[in-house]
Amino acid sequence: MDHTESRDGTTGTDAHTDVTPATPEPAPESGKKRRRPWVRRVGRIALVLALVLVVPLLAVETTLRVNYMGDPADGTHTRGRDAMWLGHAWVDGRKKDADVTALARRLKDTGVRDLYVHTGPLEHDGTLPESLYPRARWFIDAVHRELPGVRVQAFLGDVLANGGPEGLELSDAATRAEVVRSAGQVLDTGYEGVHLDLEPLHSGDGNYLGLLDDLRELTRERDAQLSVAAHQIDPLPHLHSVAGLVADHPKWWSQKFFGQVARRVDQIAVMSYDTARLFESTYGGYVAQQTSLALEVTPPTTHLLMGLPFYYENNPSHWGHAETVAAAVRGARLGLSRTDPDRELFGLAPYIDFAASETNWKEFEDGWVR
Question: 116 CB contacts (<8 Å, ≥6 apart)?
């Protein structure tokens, strides 16, 4: 039978015959296959996650770059209250009189008035073997001879148990008591202060605050200094809490906790390096922000110091081309200018002597000492 095709896709022989549906012809294939629904959903989720992560990151980096703009106020230079971290070689017998003479020549007229000399590390139970610092008395006497007015403090540190399977446990009262006893031990040796560096220290640790209270009582009785190395402050509100969801030991302290620590010590030195910043300008802006945040909660009776990276290395947490001494100095001056330009108890603290280059020293002297 002869069939003809109508416009609506049906077929028939003439006007008097019944019209029956025909199987529709497949539509021509387009150049692209249509994505399945789950693929589209995954794509949307990926886009949202990218926006959630990238947009805030770009906003933070832009803010830090802007924070680095402008000129520091006149007079934001050394107050003659700077400090420096020194390595263990000064007290274990490796250094000689000639080394102290060279150190004195380097530090003369720089404003450095406190030396944090690595004297530990503490044992995990809080004790400190005297065999670790057999030449401490010699070094203290040599500094007093070569650099009158410069104080020598015992830099005591250890890894905390909350950063791994082993370490010093702050929640143990006996361990805290041993740390205090070790502090008295180094003061008996002739040190003029105790500088404590325990890492990684979680924000809000009440046991640490209690330890500082006990140490402060001891150092006041001995007319000695109590100083600490401090973690950086949340660059965004509650960032330490967010970071704690993905890391066992978040990098930052809350600003509130930083203030609680600062009120319990004579000196607090911010470890303002290892920031993962990729550019010199954003690193400098970060230091400016950290300086302002620290100044806001550090009482005027506490000496605030901002750490400088006197070393060069490249890794995901520290890019040497970005974390320069020049950027850190300028950032600290900008933060000081904007927050408390007349503050006297303020200084910078290079870390560390044995890794310092001539460029580090020049940028420190040109930007801060002048």
Answer: 83, 84, 85, 86, 153, 155, 195, 227, 269, 349
